[in-house]
Every structure is written in structure tokens, then in C-alpha cells.
Amino acid sequence: MNIKENEENSTEEMIRPGDMLRQAREKLGYSQKDIASRLRLKLSVINNIEDNIFEESQVATFTRGYVCSYAKYVGLNEKEILAKLDLLGHAQPKEQEMQSFSRRTKREAHDSRIMGITWGVAAIIIGLTAAWWWQSEQLESGTDLSTVSSELSQPLDESIANSDLSDPTITGISASDINAAAEGTVVTASEPETVLSATNDSDLISAVDDEVSISNPSTVINAGSDNDSFVAEQASDVISESAESTDDGAIVSDLKLSFAGDCWIDVRDANGKRLDTGIKKTGDVLNLNGAAPFKVVLGAPGVVEMTYKGEPVDLSVYPTGKVARFKLPL
């Protein structure tokens, strides 16, 4: 208790800075209004200083500046007044955080940060989209290549079976034998065990077929007039078959493909039957027939000329280097 009482007594005995300023003002004959007008301060500020009321909410630097200006105007020592102010513990100068007095500056700084974040997110999205598109293109091209390679590995038996053969096929008899039979030539042999009797027509027919297909020069046919007539009939049948095959070749095919370069193809009809498939070389020509519509796949459409029922098919719409897939008729 004694310590507190001593502190209170010392505080009461010490002259406070507001009292010193008031006494100096009164001594000079100035009113508070005169001081406020001279220092360009509010009258309430001058009154608070003389009453030693220093608001903590007020910035310490401003308070000390007001006191210094007041002391200087009334002729008191500024340092002495500030020292007494410090002893009272009022308006101690402290480091305070600098604050912007412009909300616009804060708003602009905030907006710039938001814009930076927005542009960053947009750049990331664009980058991810570009990467996804590039990967999709790579996967699509890889799928086309794998499809072509798998189709190339399929057997070409159906292609061979469906390809048109330009060489005429003569079964069971040769051209030289036909000519000889037509002229009525009888071939004799030195071996008597191979001579055939013409008493039985059926035996004669089978023997002639066997002997002619083997084309053995040691075989002798002695058939008389019946043998000559039979051979003549065989020759006429072969000639008629050759004429029919020639007429069939003149018929316009459903599809005709001409190749100016190497190209892989796959052609199927409406029933799913594969008409042809595989790699075609330069100069190859295909004539295909089947049930429409046809499903056509061309690995290099730029080197192919195609006609459908005699009408040309425009393949220029398909880009070079890309696999063309379409149906005919379009």
C-alpha cells in the first residue's frame, strides 16, 4: 500500500504537459480558440491536450506532433514537454503497420492477383486440352496401322479364289490331241497290250479321257469311226466353252480397280463375303462381282482408279496417306 500511495503522490506533484501548455497560453493571453486557429486544429484537440487526455486510438506520431507545435507556439521547450509526456506513459511512439489510405489501391492489388490466378488456370486447361488432343491423334493413327497390319496377315486364299484368271482352262484334253482327233488321225503303237477295243462305247469314252489326260505317247487308240465322232464332239465342246468364257469376259464387272502404285485393299459384298483383300502392285487390274452394296477399304486411295458398273468413282475426296472406307453405290 505504501508503494502505491508514493506513486500516486509523485504523480500528483509532477506537473503534466497539458498543465504546462495551459499555463503558458494563459500567460501569453491566448485563448484555446486562438491556438486552434493558429495550429489549424480542432478546438476539441486543444482542449484534450490541456486536460492531458490522449486517446490511444489516435496515432502516436500525430499526438506528439500536436504537442510539439503547441509548445513551440507558446514558447516552451519541445523536448522538455515530450519528456514529461513520455514519463506519463501517454502517446509512446510505437512501430505501427503502414496502412494504405486508398481502398482503390487495395482493390487493384486484389484484382491483379485474381487475374493472375485466372490466367494461370486458363493456361493449364489449354495445355491439358492440347495434350489430350495430341494423344488422341496418336492413338487413332496407331489404331489404323494395327488394323491394316492385322488385315494384311489374313490368308489370301479367298483373293486367289475370287480373282479372274485370264488363261483359258481346258480340262481332260490337250489342243494337239483335239486337232489330231478332228483330222481323223489314228495313232498306232508298237505295244499291243495297250490297244483298246471299240465294242463298248462307255469303255471307249473312259479310256480316251484317261489316255488323253495323261498324254502318254506310248498309248494307241484304235477306235474306228466311233472314236473319231467322239473326239470330234469333245473338240466342239471345248471350243464352245472357250467361246462362252470369252463372252463372259466381255460383260461389264460390278467393280473394276486399276492400280498405279502399291495399295492394300479389302472388298466385301452385301452378304459379308470378302471378294478380295491384300496388297496390290502397280499395274494390277481387278474385276469383282457380287451383291451390292459393296464395302470398300483402300489403304492408298490416291493410286487407285475405280469404276462401278462402268461409271468412274471419284476418289479425290479422300486425303492422300489416309485409309479410305466407303460403300458403293454411294
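Second entry:
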Amino acid sequence: MPHVESEPIEAAESSGGLARLPFPPVTRSHILHCSYHYWHPLYRALTPKARLIPLTDPFISYLLADGIVLPPDQPRRSTLAGDDSGIETSDSEDDGEDEDPSADWLEIHNKIKDTIKELGGIVTPKLNWSAPKDATWIAVTNDLQCQTPNDIYLLLKSSDFITHDLEHAFDDTDLEPVDNLASEAIADHKKIPYYLVLRKYFNLNPSLEFRCFVRDRKLLCICQRDLNHFDFLFPMRDMLRSRIQSFFDDKLNDTFPDSNFVFDVYVPPPHERVWLIDINPWAIRTDPLLFSWLEILTMKDPAPLEEEVVRLSLRDESEVIGGAQHTASGRIEDCDVLEEENSDEGETSEIENISPLPEFRLVSRDDPEAYGFTAPQYSAHKLPRDVVDASQAGPGGMESFMRQWQDLLSKEFQQQQDESSGDDE
């Protein structure tokens, strides 16, 4: 749940002086309802395989502590040179007397090791709301794959998104209303029941992951999560939209406690099943991706499907029946029947003005705004390019970079000393 900056300028320009986005009050109970530990038990059968590990105060303090000190039993030992590298291992030769940082949360450490083994040896981590996607630059694999507990700790401690979960979960929220389940956590953010979520790693195709916006229990709009153009998505749009709409109607609409929320889904081949990946708050902190929040908040509701049925019933009965027979092998729920039956141009125009399903926005090849989407995500949370390149080159590359950096600092310090001595003379 990384923080997304607000859009006051866009709102003011687009609405003739609107000072701020017209969000309804964001309650602390809503934030907690979007926490993985809350919604996962409700929809466990709809999600990829995952395990939740409750976190203790000592472990949370470890995540928030400055510097990165890893427990001694990691298989891949850091080879970073210098005392100022910021990353240490408690089994290094120079500081073998250092305390094991996992001593105060050894049960969690062992549970993480067991869970990694249970889930096939590779997992991806997240906390209640956020995954450390902004810290993948520091991982050997340059993604969220973790094979050891120390892989997980390194990502979590390097992530601004994780820090936001731990220290700013209730920013810009109202206290009321609350429910019984959330009341204790709402009273004091330090009592939020934090969990480490370890999800079994699988090869997720990012082009088939979609963000869905729900307002007043209506699926308002959908868009890609990966902000690149994919040709193959356009012929599939109606089918995917119908799959997602049915998933929302059958699984989420009547079961999630809040009427406004954002959820992410994954529709892998053969595109017959929809997986729930995440649920996000209806708040400025959630990235609207291909939309703007002003656009979403002021968007008209999709017209109910019943309105279209009424209009079709005004046509000749035999024509409608014939159309239904003609599309029996197709996807009637995708409204293909409307496209095939509307041979009259004027009548087509009338019915096309009704949108029975949510807007589904994809990145077009010729969209001039799409060219900016290829910029690296989370760049504001990353280190300079030289550091990223060095980390991708493996331990040797990072060691060489640190040595060059220390040499540069030493030369600069020596130059300052020489200049200071010259001035004194």
C-alpha cells in the first residue's frame, strides 16, 4: 500500500477550481479490511497459495531499525567491503562477537524457514498491505523471489513501502465508524496485527493482471496493472471483462464489508478462472494507473444490464430469438449479441451508448501518453543507476563499486585536508 501523491493541480484544472479530490471519508476500519490478514480468510480459495506468519514487536523493531544486519545462517553471505557499506552479516570474521539479530524473534525466523520449504523453496513476501517491490534492485534475482529468510529480510528492510505499512498505515484516515474486529487496532496503530505473508512463487505473466475499481458495490472500471502495450489483449477484452465482472458479482460484491474498494486480479491461460491477488483501499494512496482519481470519482455508473434487455425486447421476437441462437456458441454474457444483432446503423448507435459492463482500459500502441509508461517503476525509491548496475552484476560487482566509492571519498577528503592546510599557511 505505497503512498501515492495527491492530485490537487489536476483536480483544480479539470473541475474549475475544485480544491481537492471528492473522496468519501477513509476510515481506519476500511484500511484494516484491506489488510491481507483480514480478507484472506474470506477468499482463501480464490487466491494463490500463501501462508501468514504473525509478527512480534521485536521483529517489527528489527525491520524499522537503521542498517541491515542479517542473521548468521544465510547460505549466501554478503561480500560487501568496508565498515560503511550499510549491510553486515553477524557471522563475518571481523565481528564474530556480534549478537544474532534474530535472537529475539527466533521462532519467527524458524517459521519462515519452514514455510519456505513447505511452499516449494521459493516464495514472494509482503506485509499486510504492501510488497517490497521498490526494493527489488537489491535482490540477486532483481525481483521478489526469496529462497532464504535473509532474502526476505533484505527486501523488507530496504523497502519504503514496508516502512509505510509499519509507520503510516492510518495516515489521512478518520476514526469512525469502526467495527468490533478492528476497534482495538484502530484505537492505537501500534496494535495493528502485523503479518508476514509468504506466497508460493509462480511465474505470473504481468500482462494478465488487472486493477478493478468498485464504487457503491458496482464494478466501475478496469485497467491493466502492467503499463505496457500488449497487442493480444485487445481481442480478449470482452471476454476478460465478462470473466472479471462475473467474478466480482459471484465472489466479492456481497461479501466484502465496504462498498468502495479496489481489487487486483490475475486471469492466466486458458483465461477461465480469475484469481484474487490483492484488495486495496478506496483512497489516494492506491495507484489509479491508467485512470486518474478525479476521473474515477466523477465517472458515471455503468448502465444496468436490464436496460439493454428491455430495449432488445422492443424488437421483433423472432429476430431476438434468432440472434440468441446465432450466438449460442459465443459469449452472450459479453454482450456479443448486441454487436451481431445491430445491423441497422442508427439502432447500433442507440444501444452502444449504454455501457452494461465497466470500462476496460488498455494501453494503446498509438497512445502518446503510453510512451512514458516504459519508465522504471518505483524509481523514486531506488538508488542511483551506478548502484543498481553494480548490484545486478552480483557480489563481485558490488564489492568493486564499494571499493571505488571508498577510494573516491578518500581522495575527496584528502583534497579537502590539503586545501585546508594551504589556507592555514
